[in-house]
Structure formats: C-alpha cells, structure tokens
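Colleagues,

For the teaching module next term, I've prepared a clean inverse folding example: a structure given as tokens, and then the sequence designed for it. I'd like students to try predicting residues themselves before seeing the answer, so please don't circulate the second half yet.
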C-alpha cells in the first residue's frame, strides 16, 4: 500500500506541470489565481515539495477538474459523475461538463414565470438551447418566440435576449454555451 501511495504522490508533480503547459498557463498566472507562490508551484511540479491537500485543492479549482483526476488517484470502480446543481434566480442549472473554457453544457430547469416585465440582457458568447419539456419564451432582439419540446435555437448572446418558462409547468432545456462565441456544430452521416 505504501508503495502505491508513494508512486501516486510522485506522479503528481509531472502531472501538474503537464496540465499547466497543456493549458498554456505560466507559473505567474497560476500563482495569481491560486494564491500559491511561484516557487512553491515550481517545487510541486519538480517533486521538490510534497503535495498537500491545502495546495492541491486550489489547483484543482483553478484547473476545473476533480481532485482525484488531478492527483491520478486509482479508480474506485464507480464511473458515475456527480455534478452539483447550481441554483440561480429561481432556476436550477445542472452542469453536464466539467472543464472550464470551451463549450459548456447544462440542463436548466426553469419554473413557470408569472407575468413580469422582461429585462433583455447581452453578454459574451454564443448559446444553443434544446427544449426538453414545457414551453419557453425567448425574446431575441425584435423577435418574440415560443419554443416547444423538440425545438432548438442558437444565437449570439451579444443580441439582447430574455428567456423564461411560460405556461403552467416548469420548462427543462439543454444548453450549450461558449463564452468565446463558439457555435455548436451538428454533423450527421447521410
């Protein structure tokens, strides 16, 4: 058991260095985002400093990966991913992807909206929505759309927009969102 533990711990440094280089992050940038000194990060990567939980937790958060994956912990045999729902503005967002950057996937559950004055917003990115259940109202620029189950929309989020569930029941949607304006591409073999 001690040999396996030592082997796992000795592989952490090279894994940290490879991950940082793969993401093209400098030690200075990583130090700024984690509040861990550059010299400590360098010693961790070279194996000169033993990894501790207080050092690894901010690194796992900065890289947006589970601690088990960061340290290369042996598999437990359970392949399930346990994503934690996020509650915001009365809605539930269930993340379906774990990596920061690139396109993010969410399942969103929207409660029925009582008639309110819509407030259109703009922000960076590109969004793709697929309605699973319920009815969704999308105000997009000058357009006022009601989306039903099975319908899909995609739009640049620089266009003023507002999205809400309408009708007596909550709406569930799958969302793909890219902060850098990535568009979803669907390929089919015909």
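(Answer key — instructors only)
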């Amino acid at each position: 058991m001690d040999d396996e533990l030592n082997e796992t711990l000795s592989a952490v440094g090279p894994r940290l260095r490879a991950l940082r280089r793969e993401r093209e992050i400098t030690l200075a940038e990583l130090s700024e985002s984690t509040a861990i000194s550059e010299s400590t990060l360098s010693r961790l990567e070279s194996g000169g400093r033993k990894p501790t939980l207080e050092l690894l937790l901010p690194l796992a958060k900065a890289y947006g990966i589970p601690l088990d994956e960061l340290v290369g912990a042996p598999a437990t045999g359970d392949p399930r991913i346990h994503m934690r729902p996020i509650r915001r503005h009365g809605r539930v967002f269930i993340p379906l992807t774990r990596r920061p950057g690139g396109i993010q996937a969410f399942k969103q559950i929207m409660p029925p909206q009582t008639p309110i004055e819509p407030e259109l917003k703009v922000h960076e990115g590109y969004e793709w929505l697929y309605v699973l259940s319920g009815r969704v109202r999308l105000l997009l620029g000058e357009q006022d759309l009601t989306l039903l189950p099975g319908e899909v929309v995609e739009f640049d989020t620089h266009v003023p927009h507002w999205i809400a569930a309408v009708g007596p029941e909550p709406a569930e949607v799958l969302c793909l969102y890219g902060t850098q304006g990535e568009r979803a591409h669907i390929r089919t073999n015909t």
